[in-house]
Input
Amino acid sequence: MKKALFYITLLAILILTLFYFLGTKQDNTINTKINLDKKNKDPYGAFVFFESLKAFFPNSKHIINYSKPDDAQTFGTLDSNQLYIILRPNFYPNSTELNDLISFIDRGNHVFISTFRIDVPLEKFIKATSESETALYYPDGNYGTDTMQVSLSSPPFAGKLSYRYPGILMDGQFNTMSPSIAKEIGNSHLGKPNLIRLKKGKGSLYVHLSPLVFSNYFMLYDNNIQYFENLFSIFPSNTSVVIWDEFFTPYRNEPTKADWFNAIMSNTYFRSGILLALLLLLIYAVSEMRRKQRIIPIIPKPENASLNFVRTVGLLYYEKGDHLNLARKMSAHFLDHVRSRYKLFSRDLNQEFAKELSYKSGVQDRIVLEIVRQLNQLQTEGIVSETDLIILQKNMENFYHNE
Output
């Protein structure tokens, strides 16, 4: 047991060392996967954007929406002066959801949608057509780096403001639009409109086709944070509520209560410690199970009960000297054994019977023929000597042993 404990301890030290080096190894590869999630801190996540909204609207209430746009608990029924931000790679609301957004805008709220693609119902509402060929590479964006440049128009901004970064080029633009309905306030890298504003009731709708400008990489590059600041300065400083959308996600997942576990497992050292503890627990369980397992008893091979019976009866009659009766008992038992085990029913103990019994039992023909001859002799003569009885007994024992 001491030897096993030594090997277990050595194995634990080796595994702990392995986890330590794996945990401290620095990964220098740049993650180019586009993930516009508010918690993602990779180059193309939206963590900086989400946190910047809190700093830019310090007096506003910030909430996250997981419900439909008609949910009164989140959006209210008569509330106005709210800002609803939707940052998604694709924005495909159904007709009911689109009508709810329009009603929300009508009563004096603002909706800002930043996405690569919009569907036909929304295009019909804003009376514009859009395209986004580079968005075909979503979400990997690993086709190589390029330079993306966007700009804000004048008016409403003071002069034309341009911003660029040496990252992934992926955006969209409007091919056609109706100036009487929508106003162009931003342009893509091709100089086409990528940001338009529509007035509806007391509110407004903004449709933006370059969501990568809100990625961590773009916002932290050079002075690109000014793009964010200039753009959101359009909205009232006294905006009461800023709503971040999580409803129009691909899977529309509700927030889970297991975030604490994910946070723990995301830490390399915590994860290494937990995995090591589980491994040690497994080793302990295996060693304890092996030490306390009961020995499996050896089950002896079943004995031939017929042979024991023959011996017992044989000794009984042999001591009395009644050889004929003993021979008849042995003969009757043998034939009953043959009938019950091999299903051989034959009134004539002839050569055919002997061959069939030898074939089914696997006993040599010589032994079976000798037994059949002796049984026939017993029936015809009715006299059995002590020598004949001993020979019959040996032949039957050979049969029972070899079947």
Observations:
- Residues 2-25+268-292 form one domain.
- The CA atoms of residues 29 and 227 lie 28 Å apart.
